Amino acid sequence: MKKVLRRLKSKLTGRLIHSPTVSLPYDYFGTDYGGWPILKSTLSADSIILSFGLGTDISFDLAVIRACGCRVIGFDPTPRSIDWLAKQTLPEQFQYHQIGIAATDDEADFFPPSDGAHVSFSSQPSAATASLTPIRAPVRRLSTILDELQIPHVDVVKMDIEGFEYDVIDDILASPVRPRQLLIEFHHTMYDIGRDKTERAFRQLEAAGYKCFYVSDVGLEYGFVLNS
Predict the structure, then answer these.
(1) CA–CA distance, 34 with 54 (Å, rounded to integer)
(2) Domain residues for 182?
């Protein structure tokens, strides 16, 4: 009943705008806040997961490492995440880089949250954060990250990147890089981002051969798998 009520509320508020297009068995790893679904049957110890946007919750990353023994490479250039990760004891299968993902190889503005207790820096300000000063941090395209870090292949890309996802999807689909799974948090209804951007991204991914196997009850987290 709680799940039904959450989905109804999300639909009424405009957050829930899609449903899965394929029914596939998935495993959910991590906390309610930081967890993600994944098609575990496609993973092995040789798999590589790129995890963009770590904040202060890497429960997904650690749980996947424990379950599959695979390699997870995390990315987050924001100061609160950097400080928090420096205090953690991390397994050898987890690597961390202080860069973000974007559609260009450059530096980008990251806007701080309006609530000082929150950790997420966004790609653009909302009305509540327009007066706050952004930080500048390095960003790279996915294809550049693979080249610079000499990553031979990528099985899963997870993106919780606070509005950067729309341009990144454009860039990935314009490149030959095709991760088998894409786990994406969309940010329509946040940072003054309209739902039309998520609707467009969904159509683009479908046209590129990705099928949606998961949409969260709150309507923001999506799981896509490349149709083989």
Answers:
(1) 9
(2) 2-101+151-226
Residue 182, burial from CB neighbour count under 10 angstroms (0-12, 13-18, 19+) = buried
- State the distance between the two ends of the chain, measured CA to CA, in whole angstroms: 35
Instruction: Determine the length of the chain.
Output: 228
DSSP 155: S
Closest CA to 142 of 205, 224, 210, 52: 52
How would DSSP label each residue in 55-80?
Answer: TT--HHHHHHHHHH--EEEEE--SHH
> Quick check: is 144 in a domain?
no
Alpha-carbon span 166 to 169, nearest angstrom: 5
Is residue 158 within 8 A of residue 214, CB to CB? The reply is no
- Report pTM: 0.92
Most distant CA pair in the chain, distance: 48
**What is the C-alpha separation between 34 and 24, in angstroms, rounded?**
21
Mutual angle of helices 165-173 and 195-207, in 10-degree steps: 20
Q: What is the DSSP letter of 212?
A: E
Q: What confidence tens digit (pLDDT) does each residue in 140-150 have?
A: 999 999 999 99
- Rg, the chain, Cα only: 17
Burial per residue of 120-132, b for 16 or more beta-carbon CB atoms within 10 angstroms, e otherwise: bbbbbbbeebeee
Q: Other CB atoms closer than 10 Å to residue 52's CB: what's the count? A: 25
pLDDT digits (tens, 9 = 90+) for 190-210: 888 899 999 999 999 999 999
Question: What's the CATH number where 155 sits?
Answer: 3.40.50.150
